[in-house]
Amino acid sequence: MDKPDVTLENSDAVYDFYLRHQQNRLLAKAAYATLAAKFRPRVRYADGARESIRELLRTNTSVVLSVNHLSESDPYTVAAAAWRSPLRELIGRTRVLAKDELFSERKLRDRIDLMGSIPVFRGKNHGMRAVNAAGQRMMDVCAERMRRGDSLAIFPEGTCNEGDPTRLQSVGSGVGHITNRAVGLGVAPVLLHMGISYGDTPSGRDRDARGASVYFGAPVTELPDKPAAIARLVHDRLQEAVDGAVARY
């Protein structure tokens, strides 16, 4: 399957491709294991969360994983933490939303395609009106992938937090719309929240990202029926996960 150029003008072909794309699961697992060995995050859980996550995955429940966004190294931390947690079972069956500019360089694109990424055309880069149709299609593709059995990982703040790393930025409505559309397709997803802390001086440099504190909140199985309410719930529960990661750094 030929890879289309990831440009806004080519968004129809882009999302046709990522509706079908499937990475090599064995290679993906090897990549996640390598990142876990390199970054060595310290993974902790809310009371009972680890066992609850394991039980949900035994029933093939689709997960919407929300993570706070502190640095360009966050995807590596998330991958490493997934390998060191029950989420290892989802490697190769999780779509990860990633900004479109990451797909412009061939070598980097090959790596993020291996991780199961789906490109997002952001309004801050292209203008809100320009990205509206592509954004709607992206959400439809994510919901359909979940209907087919995939899970989803998202940084719902949409951009790196350059302010106080202990306080979550506003959460966009996208996570609510995607989850709501998946429910409309007959999916019964669970919301899961991963907080990351790099201490006092987070940055995009690998050496600063090693040994991150990662904290999983308890899964949320009862969801509101409106996208905006889902987004508010994600904000509140993700802030709790960030608090947990900061407290245990």
Automatic annotation (TrEMBL):
<keyword id="KW-0012">Acyltransferase</keyword>
<keyword id="KW-0808">Transferase</keyword>
<dbReference type="InterPro" id="IPR002123">
    <property type="entry name" value="Plipid/glycerol_acylTrfase"/>
</dbReference>
<protein>
    <recommendedName>
        <fullName>Phospholipid/glycerol acyltransferase domain-containing protein</fullName>
    </recommendedName>
</protein>
<feature type="domain" description="Phospholipid/glycerol acyltransferase">
    <location>
        <begin position="63"/>
        <end position="199"/>
    </location>
</feature>
<dbReference type="Pfam" id="PF01553">
    <property type="entry name" value="Acyltransferase"/>
</dbReference>
